[in-house]
Amino acid sequence: MTAPNRADLVPVLALCLWPLLCGEAVASGEALLIPVDGSIGVATGEMVERGLATSAEQGAELVILRLDTPGGLDTAMRRIIKAILASQIPVAAYVAPSGARAASAGTYILYAAHIAAMAPATNLGAATPVQLGGAFPGIGEPETPEGKKGEAAGAKDAMERKLVNDAVAYIRGLATLRGRNADWAEQAVRESVSLNAQAALEAGVIDLVAPNVQSLLHDIDGRSVDLPGGPRALATDGLAVRELEPGWRARLLAVITDPNVAYVLLIIGIYGILFELANPGAVLPGVIGGISLILALYALQLLPVNYAGLALILIGVAFMAAEAFVPSFGALGLGGLVAFLAGSVILMDERGMPISPAVIASTGLASGAFFVWVLSRLVRLRRRAPVVGTEHLIGAIGEALDDFGAGDQGSGRVRVAGEIWSASTDSPVHRGQRVRVLSITGLHLSVTPEHEE
To answer: Is 209 left (phi over 0), alpha (psi -120 to 50) or beta?
Structure first.
Protein backbone atom coordinates (compact mmCIF):
# COMPACT_ATOMS: atom_id res chain seq x y z
CA MET A 1 0.00 0.00 0.00
CA THR A 2 1.53 3.30 -1.09
CA ALA A 3 1.72 6.34 1.22
CA PRO A 4 -0.62 9.19 0.33
CA ASN A 5 0.87 12.03 -1.65
CA ARG A 6 1.26 15.24 0.37
CA ALA A 7 -0.16 17.25 -2.49
CA ASP A 8 -3.37 15.21 -2.25
CA LEU A 9 -3.78 16.25 1.41
CA VAL A 10 -3.94 19.99 0.63
CA PRO A 11 -7.56 20.03 -0.64
CA VAL A 12 -8.64 17.89 2.32
CA LEU A 13 -7.01 20.24 4.84
CA ALA A 14 -8.48 23.25 3.09
CA LEU A 15 -11.98 21.79 3.34
CA CYS A 16 -11.47 21.03 7.04
CA LEU A 17 -10.14 24.49 7.88
CA TRP A 18 -12.59 26.48 5.74
CA PRO A 19 -15.35 26.69 8.41
CA LEU A 20 -12.80 27.96 10.95
CA LEU A 21 -11.38 30.58 8.59
CA CYS A 22 -14.82 31.82 7.54
CA GLY A 23 -16.71 31.95 10.82
CA GLU A 24 -18.93 34.82 9.56
CA ALA A 25 -20.02 32.89 6.47
CA VAL A 26 -23.68 32.17 5.93
CA ALA A 27 -24.34 28.68 4.68
CA SER A 28 -26.28 28.23 1.46
CA GLY A 29 -29.88 27.42 2.26
CA GLU A 30 -29.72 29.27 5.56
CA ALA A 31 -31.62 32.29 6.88
CA LEU A 32 -29.69 35.08 8.58
CA LEU A 33 -31.45 36.86 11.45
CA ILE A 34 -30.28 40.42 12.17
CA PRO A 35 -31.56 41.89 15.46
CA VAL A 36 -32.51 45.57 15.29
CA ASP A 37 -33.03 46.40 18.95
CA GLY A 38 -33.20 49.83 20.56
CA SER A 39 -32.69 53.14 18.79
CA ILE A 40 -31.58 52.91 15.17
CA GLY A 41 -28.21 54.59 14.79
CA VAL A 42 -25.01 54.49 12.79
CA ALA A 43 -23.98 51.10 14.18
CA THR A 44 -27.36 49.58 13.27
CA GLY A 45 -27.08 50.76 9.69
CA GLU A 46 -23.57 49.39 9.35
CA MET A 47 -24.55 46.02 10.84
CA VAL A 48 -27.54 45.62 8.49
CA GLU A 49 -25.43 46.54 5.46
CA ARG A 50 -22.75 44.05 6.46
CA GLY A 51 -25.32 41.30 7.04
CA LEU A 52 -26.99 41.85 3.65
CA ALA A 53 -23.64 41.88 1.84
CA THR A 54 -22.48 38.68 3.59
CA SER A 55 -25.78 36.94 2.81
CA ALA A 56 -25.56 37.85 -0.88
CA GLU A 57 -21.96 36.61 -1.13
CA GLN A 58 -22.77 33.27 0.53
CA GLY A 59 -26.08 32.67 -1.23
CA ALA A 60 -28.43 32.73 1.76
CA GLU A 61 -32.13 32.17 1.10
CA LEU A 62 -33.48 34.92 3.34
CA VAL A 63 -32.51 37.75 5.69
CA ILE A 64 -34.80 38.44 8.65
CA LEU A 65 -34.69 41.84 10.34
CA ARG A 66 -36.12 41.30 13.83
CA LEU A 67 -37.42 44.74 14.84
CA ASP A 68 -37.95 46.08 18.34
CA THR A 69 -37.23 49.80 18.10
CA PRO A 70 -38.71 53.15 19.16
CA GLY A 71 -37.16 54.79 16.08
CA GLY A 72 -33.87 56.55 15.52
CA LEU A 73 -31.79 58.60 13.15
CA ASP A 74 -33.31 59.48 9.80
CA THR A 75 -29.95 59.05 8.07
CA ALA A 76 -29.44 55.55 9.50
CA MET A 77 -33.00 54.55 8.59
CA ARG A 78 -32.56 55.64 4.96
CA ARG A 79 -29.22 53.83 4.81
CA ILE A 80 -30.93 50.59 5.88
CA ILE A 81 -33.81 51.07 3.42
CA LYS A 82 -31.41 51.70 0.53
CA ALA A 83 -29.59 48.47 1.38
CA ILE A 84 -32.91 46.55 1.46
CA LEU A 85 -34.07 47.96 -1.88
CA ALA A 86 -30.75 47.05 -3.51
CA SER A 87 -30.53 43.61 -1.91
CA GLN A 88 -30.41 40.50 -4.13
CA ILE A 89 -31.55 38.45 -1.12
CA PRO A 90 -35.21 38.62 0.05
CA VAL A 91 -35.61 40.57 3.29
CA ALA A 92 -38.35 39.91 5.83
CA ALA A 93 -39.01 42.55 8.50
CA TYR A 94 -40.42 40.81 11.57
CA VAL A 95 -41.61 42.76 14.63
CA ALA A 96 -40.86 40.39 17.51
CA PRO A 97 -40.96 39.09 20.18
CA SER A 98 -44.42 39.69 21.62
CA GLY A 99 -44.46 43.10 23.28
CA ALA A 100 -42.04 44.59 20.75
CA ARG A 101 -42.76 47.59 18.51
CA ALA A 102 -41.64 49.09 15.23
CA ALA A 103 -42.29 52.77 15.84
CA SER A 104 -41.16 55.75 13.79
CA ALA A 105 -38.15 54.64 11.71
CA GLY A 106 -39.10 50.99 12.29
CA THR A 107 -42.36 51.51 10.39
CA TYR A 108 -40.51 52.80 7.31
CA ILE A 109 -38.18 49.80 7.39
CA LEU A 110 -41.16 47.44 7.70
CA TYR A 111 -42.75 49.02 4.64
CA ALA A 112 -39.51 48.69 2.65
CA ALA A 113 -39.02 44.97 3.33
CA HIS A 114 -40.13 42.30 0.82
CA ILE A 115 -42.06 40.51 3.58
CA ALA A 116 -43.67 42.38 6.50
CA ALA A 117 -44.65 40.31 9.52
CA MET A 118 -45.47 40.83 13.18
CA ALA A 119 -45.69 38.63 16.24
CA PRO A 120 -48.90 38.74 18.32
CA ALA A 121 -49.14 41.58 20.87
CA THR A 122 -46.80 43.87 18.91
CA ASN A 123 -47.48 47.26 17.31
CA LEU A 124 -46.17 49.68 14.70
CA GLY A 125 -46.80 53.27 13.61
CA ALA A 126 -46.25 56.73 15.15
CA ALA A 127 -44.10 57.59 12.14
CA THR A 128 -44.28 61.39 12.38
CA PRO A 129 -40.78 62.93 12.23
CA VAL A 130 -40.03 64.51 15.61
CA GLN A 131 -39.32 68.23 15.45
CA LEU A 132 -37.04 69.33 18.29
CA GLY A 133 -38.42 72.10 20.44
CA GLY A 134 -41.83 72.48 18.84
CA ALA A 135 -45.14 70.99 17.93
CA PHE A 136 -46.30 69.77 14.56
CA PRO A 137 -48.79 71.52 12.33
CA GLY A 138 -52.10 72.00 14.06
CA ILE A 139 -50.88 70.79 17.45
CA GLY A 140 -50.54 73.30 20.27
CA GLU A 141 -49.73 76.34 18.16
CA PRO A 142 -50.94 79.53 19.87
CA GLU A 143 -52.68 82.15 17.75
CA THR A 144 -52.42 85.91 17.89
CA PRO A 145 -55.45 87.94 19.03
CA GLU A 146 -56.33 88.46 15.34
CA GLY A 147 -56.45 84.71 14.87
CA LYS A 148 -53.28 84.57 12.79
CA LYS A 149 -49.93 83.21 13.78
CA GLY A 150 -46.90 85.44 13.80
CA GLU A 151 -44.27 85.44 11.10
CA ALA A 152 -41.93 83.23 13.15
CA ALA A 153 -44.69 80.70 13.77
CA GLY A 154 -45.58 80.78 10.08
CA ALA A 155 -42.01 80.05 9.05
CA LYS A 156 -41.88 77.25 11.59
CA ASP A 157 -45.12 75.78 10.24
CA ALA A 158 -43.74 75.92 6.70
CA MET A 159 -40.64 73.99 7.72
CA GLU A 160 -42.68 71.40 9.59
CA ARG A 161 -45.01 70.94 6.62
CA LYS A 162 -41.99 70.33 4.40
CA LEU A 163 -40.67 67.68 6.79
CA VAL A 164 -44.02 65.92 7.09
CA ASN A 165 -44.76 66.07 3.36
CA ASP A 166 -41.32 64.68 2.57
CA ALA A 167 -41.89 61.80 5.01
CA VAL A 168 -45.34 61.13 3.55
CA ALA A 169 -43.99 60.98 0.00
CA TYR A 170 -41.21 58.65 1.12
CA ILE A 171 -43.41 56.12 2.92
CA ARG A 172 -46.13 56.21 0.23
CA GLY A 173 -43.46 55.37 -2.33
CA LEU A 174 -42.40 52.35 -0.26
CA ALA A 175 -46.03 51.28 0.20
CA THR A 176 -46.70 51.47 -3.54
CA LEU A 177 -43.54 49.49 -4.31
CA ARG A 178 -44.53 46.65 -1.95
CA GLY A 179 -48.29 46.79 -2.54
CA ARG A 180 -49.22 47.78 1.00
CA ASN A 181 -51.74 50.21 2.46
CA ALA A 182 -50.42 53.65 1.45
CA ASP A 183 -53.31 55.61 2.97
CA TRP A 184 -52.68 54.25 6.45
CA ALA A 185 -48.95 54.90 5.99
CA GLU A 186 -49.73 58.57 5.33
CA GLN A 187 -51.99 58.65 8.37
CA ALA A 188 -49.20 57.18 10.52
CA VAL A 189 -46.95 60.06 9.44
CA ARG A 190 -49.45 62.92 9.66
CA GLU A 191 -51.37 61.82 12.77
CA SER A 192 -48.88 59.49 14.54
CA VAL A 193 -51.43 56.65 14.69
CA SER A 194 -50.44 53.07 15.57
CA LEU A 195 -51.80 49.57 14.92
CA ASN A 196 -51.49 46.24 16.71
CA ALA A 197 -50.54 43.11 14.79
CA GLN A 198 -54.05 41.84 13.99
CA ALA A 199 -55.34 45.28 12.98
CA ALA A 200 -52.28 45.80 10.77
CA LEU A 201 -52.97 42.50 9.01
CA GLU A 202 -56.61 43.40 8.41
CA ALA A 203 -55.66 46.86 7.11
CA GLY A 204 -53.20 45.42 4.60
CA VAL A 205 -50.18 46.99 6.27
CA ILE A 206 -48.38 43.68 6.84
CA ASP A 207 -48.42 40.31 5.09
CA LEU A 208 -48.89 37.96 8.03
CA VAL A 209 -48.85 37.43 11.81
CA ALA A 210 -46.46 34.73 13.02
CA PRO A 211 -45.80 33.72 16.64
CA ASN A 212 -42.15 32.75 16.00
CA VAL A 213 -39.46 32.63 13.33
CA GLN A 214 -40.09 29.01 12.32
CA SER A 215 -43.77 29.76 11.82
CA LEU A 216 -42.80 32.78 9.72
CA LEU A 217 -40.55 30.65 7.52
CA HIS A 218 -43.32 28.07 7.07
CA ASP A 219 -46.01 30.65 6.17
CA ILE A 220 -43.98 32.56 3.56
CA ASP A 221 -42.73 29.41 1.81
CA GLY A 222 -43.65 29.53 -1.88
CA ARG A 223 -44.39 33.27 -1.97
CA SER A 224 -42.93 35.32 -4.81
CA VAL A 225 -41.03 38.56 -4.15
CA ASP A 226 -39.63 41.15 -6.53
CA LEU A 227 -35.86 41.57 -6.41
CA PRO A 228 -33.67 43.86 -8.53
CA GLY A 229 -32.81 40.80 -10.64
CA GLY A 230 -36.45 39.79 -11.12
CA PRO A 231 -39.15 37.78 -9.29
CA ARG A 232 -38.06 35.00 -6.96
CA ALA A 233 -40.05 32.27 -5.27
CA LEU A 234 -39.20 31.70 -1.61
CA ALA A 235 -38.18 28.25 -0.39
CA THR A 236 -38.01 28.85 3.34
CA ASP A 237 -39.85 26.03 5.07
CA GLY A 238 -37.51 24.36 7.56
CA LEU A 239 -34.55 26.68 6.91
CA ALA A 240 -31.82 26.80 9.54
CA VAL A 241 -31.62 30.25 11.17
CA ARG A 242 -28.39 31.89 12.32
CA GLU A 243 -28.37 35.13 14.26
CA LEU A 244 -25.80 37.73 13.27
CA GLU A 245 -23.61 38.72 16.20
CA PRO A 246 -22.40 42.34 16.05
CA GLY A 247 -18.62 42.67 15.84
CA TRP A 248 -16.45 44.77 18.16
CA ARG A 249 -16.58 47.73 15.77
CA ALA A 250 -20.38 47.68 15.72
CA ARG A 251 -20.48 47.43 19.51
CA LEU A 252 -18.09 50.36 19.89
CA LEU A 253 -20.03 52.46 17.39
CA ALA A 254 -23.29 51.63 19.13
CA VAL A 255 -21.89 53.03 22.38
CA ILE A 256 -20.03 56.15 21.27
CA THR A 257 -22.55 57.23 18.60
CA ASP A 258 -25.30 57.47 21.18
CA PRO A 259 -25.86 61.26 21.34
CA ASN A 260 -25.74 61.28 25.14
CA VAL A 261 -22.46 59.33 25.27
CA ALA A 262 -20.88 61.47 22.54
CA TYR A 263 -21.91 64.63 24.41
CA VAL A 264 -20.49 63.42 27.74
CA LEU A 265 -17.23 62.36 26.02
CA LEU A 266 -16.99 65.85 24.49
CA ILE A 267 -17.40 67.57 27.86
CA ILE A 268 -14.93 65.23 29.59
CA GLY A 269 -12.42 65.82 26.80
CA ILE A 270 -12.69 69.61 26.98
CA TYR A 271 -12.40 69.81 30.77
CA GLY A 272 -9.60 67.23 30.84
CA ILE A 273 -7.51 69.25 28.38
CA LEU A 274 -8.21 72.49 30.27
CA PHE A 275 -7.17 70.94 33.58
CA GLU A 276 -3.97 69.63 32.04
CA LEU A 277 -3.13 73.07 30.61
CA ALA A 278 -3.79 74.71 33.98
CA ASN A 279 -1.71 72.06 35.83
CA PRO A 280 1.14 70.96 33.54
CA GLY A 281 2.54 67.59 34.51
CA ALA A 282 -0.67 66.15 35.95
CA VAL A 283 -0.68 63.77 32.93
CA LEU A 284 -3.79 61.71 33.81
CA PRO A 285 -6.35 64.47 33.05
CA GLY A 286 -4.60 65.15 29.76
CA VAL A 287 -4.59 61.47 28.76
CA ILE A 288 -8.26 60.95 29.66
CA GLY A 289 -9.25 64.25 28.09
CA GLY A 290 -7.36 63.58 24.86
CA ILE A 291 -8.82 60.09 24.37
CA SER A 292 -12.34 61.28 25.22
CA LEU A 293 -12.08 64.26 22.88
CA ILE A 294 -10.90 62.13 19.94
CA LEU A 295 -13.69 59.59 20.49
CA ALA A 296 -16.24 62.40 20.78
CA LEU A 297 -15.08 64.08 17.57
CA TYR A 298 -15.22 60.73 15.73
CA ALA A 299 -18.75 60.12 16.97
CA LEU A 300 -19.88 63.66 16.15
CA GLN A 301 -18.71 63.39 12.54
CA LEU A 302 -20.98 60.33 12.19
CA LEU A 303 -23.94 62.09 13.80
CA PRO A 304 -25.94 65.00 12.34
CA VAL A 305 -24.40 67.78 14.44
CA ASN A 306 -25.43 71.41 14.50
CA TYR A 307 -22.05 73.15 14.46
CA ALA A 308 -23.55 76.33 15.89
CA GLY A 309 -24.35 74.31 19.01
CA LEU A 310 -20.81 72.91 19.13
CA ALA A 311 -19.37 76.42 18.80
CA LEU A 312 -21.59 77.70 21.63
CA ILE A 313 -20.41 74.87 23.90
CA LEU A 314 -16.75 75.66 23.21
CA ILE A 315 -17.29 79.40 23.69
CA GLY A 316 -19.21 78.76 26.92
CA VAL A 317 -16.44 76.62 28.40
CA ALA A 318 -13.82 79.17 27.30
CA PHE A 319 -15.74 82.02 28.99
CA MET A 320 -16.17 80.09 32.25
CA ALA A 321 -12.46 79.23 32.27
CA ALA A 322 -11.53 82.83 31.45
CA GLU A 323 -13.36 84.01 34.57
CA ALA A 324 -10.46 82.63 36.62
CA PHE A 325 -7.90 84.71 34.72
CA VAL A 326 -9.83 87.82 33.68
CA PRO A 327 -11.98 88.89 36.66
CA SER A 328 -15.24 90.30 35.32
CA PHE A 329 -17.41 90.13 38.46
CA GLY A 330 -19.21 87.06 37.05
CA ALA A 331 -20.11 88.44 33.60
CA LEU A 332 -17.86 86.04 31.69
CA GLY A 333 -18.84 83.05 33.81
CA LEU A 334 -22.58 83.69 33.60
CA GLY A 335 -22.43 84.35 29.87
CA GLY A 336 -20.38 81.19 29.39
CA LEU A 337 -22.91 79.10 31.32
CA VAL A 338 -25.79 80.44 29.21
CA ALA A 339 -23.86 79.75 25.98
CA PHE A 340 -22.95 76.26 27.21
CA LEU A 341 -26.58 75.31 27.95
CA ALA A 342 -27.89 76.81 24.70
CA GLY A 343 -25.27 74.94 22.67
CA SER A 344 -26.06 71.68 24.43
CA VAL A 345 -29.75 71.96 23.57
CA ILE A 346 -29.21 72.57 19.84
CA LEU A 347 -26.10 70.39 19.40
CA MET A 348 -27.88 67.45 17.74
CA ASP A 349 -29.57 68.67 14.57
CA GLU A 350 -31.63 65.50 14.11
CA ARG A 351 -35.20 64.43 14.74
CA GLY A 352 -35.68 61.36 16.90
CA MET A 353 -32.43 61.15 18.94
CA PRO A 354 -31.89 64.39 20.87
CA ILE A 355 -29.61 64.62 23.88
CA SER A 356 -31.42 63.76 27.09
CA PRO A 357 -32.47 66.86 29.07
CA ALA A 358 -31.29 65.10 32.24
CA VAL A 359 -27.77 64.78 30.80
CA ILE A 360 -27.75 68.44 29.75
CA ALA A 361 -29.02 69.51 33.17
CA SER A 362 -26.38 67.42 34.97
CA THR A 363 -23.47 68.80 32.95
CA GLY A 364 -24.91 72.31 33.23
CA LEU A 365 -25.12 72.01 37.01
CA ALA A 366 -21.55 70.70 37.18
CA SER A 367 -20.30 73.56 35.01
CA GLY A 368 -22.31 76.07 37.04
CA ALA A 369 -20.86 74.69 40.28
CA PHE A 370 -17.37 75.03 38.83
CA PHE A 371 -18.11 78.64 37.86
CA VAL A 372 -19.45 79.49 41.35
CA TRP A 373 -16.41 77.86 42.98
CA VAL A 374 -14.01 79.86 40.80
CA LEU A 375 -15.91 83.09 41.47
CA SER A 376 -16.02 82.60 45.25
CA ARG A 377 -12.33 81.75 45.33
CA LEU A 378 -11.50 84.94 43.43
CA VAL A 379 -13.55 86.99 45.90
CA ARG A 380 -11.64 85.48 48.83
CA LEU A 381 -8.29 86.14 47.17
CA ARG A 382 -9.21 89.76 46.52
CA ARG A 383 -10.14 90.27 50.18
CA ARG A 384 -6.78 88.91 51.25
CA ALA A 385 -4.78 90.91 48.72
CA PRO A 386 -1.61 92.42 50.31
CA VAL A 387 -1.13 96.19 50.71
CA VAL A 388 1.55 97.64 48.46
CA GLY A 389 4.45 99.44 50.29
CA THR A 390 6.01 99.19 53.77
CA GLU A 391 3.26 101.07 55.64
CA HIS A 392 1.47 97.81 56.30
CA LEU A 393 4.33 96.82 58.66
CA ILE A 394 3.26 99.41 61.23
CA GLY A 395 1.49 97.54 64.03
CA ALA A 396 2.75 94.18 62.80
CA ILE A 397 4.05 91.62 65.31
CA GLY A 398 7.60 90.33 64.97
CA GLU A 399 10.25 88.39 66.87
CA ALA A 400 13.53 89.66 68.29
CA LEU A 401 16.58 87.81 67.01
CA ASP A 402 19.08 89.50 69.39
CA ASP A 403 19.31 90.92 72.92
CA PHE A 404 19.60 94.70 72.72
CA GLY A 405 19.12 97.63 75.11
CA ALA A 406 17.11 100.83 75.00
CA GLY A 407 17.90 103.98 73.02
CA ASP A 408 20.28 104.51 70.15
CA GLN A 409 23.04 102.64 72.01
CA GLY A 410 21.25 99.35 71.64
CA SER A 411 19.96 97.95 68.39
CA GLY A 412 19.43 94.51 67.00
CA ARG A 413 17.62 92.41 64.49
CA VAL A 414 13.99 91.45 64.34
CA ARG A 415 11.97 89.25 61.99
CA VAL A 416 8.74 90.85 60.75
CA ALA A 417 6.51 89.53 57.95
CA GLY A 418 9.07 86.85 57.11
CA GLU A 419 11.93 89.34 56.64
CA ILE A 420 14.84 90.39 58.88
CA TRP A 421 15.10 94.10 59.79
CA SER A 422 17.39 96.22 61.94
CA ALA A 423 15.51 97.73 64.87
CA SER A 424 15.86 99.86 67.98
CA THR A 425 13.68 100.18 71.08
CA ASP A 426 13.09 102.38 74.15
CA SER A 427 12.89 99.31 76.40
CA PRO A 428 15.28 96.35 76.64
CA VAL A 429 14.41 93.46 74.36
CA HIS A 430 15.42 89.85 74.81
CA ARG A 431 16.05 87.33 72.09
CA GLY A 432 12.89 85.43 71.12
CA GLN A 433 10.63 88.08 72.63
CA ARG A 434 7.62 89.28 70.61
CA VAL A 435 7.75 92.92 69.51
CA ARG A 436 5.38 95.29 67.79
CA VAL A 437 6.45 97.76 65.07
CA LEU A 438 5.82 101.43 66.01
CA SER A 439 7.30 103.20 63.00
CA ILE A 440 9.63 102.72 60.06
CA THR A 441 12.41 104.98 58.81
CA GLY A 442 13.99 103.80 55.62
CA LEU A 443 15.00 100.22 56.40
CA HIS A 444 15.09 100.71 60.17
CA LEU A 445 12.21 99.81 62.49
CA SER A 446 11.26 101.28 65.84
CA VAL A 447 9.76 98.54 67.99
CA THR A 448 8.47 97.98 71.51
CA PRO A 449 8.08 94.78 73.51
CA GLU A 450 4.53 93.51 73.04
CA HIS A 451 3.74 93.57 76.82
CA GLU A 452 4.50 97.34 76.90
CA GLU A 453 1.98 98.13 74.17
So the answer is: beta
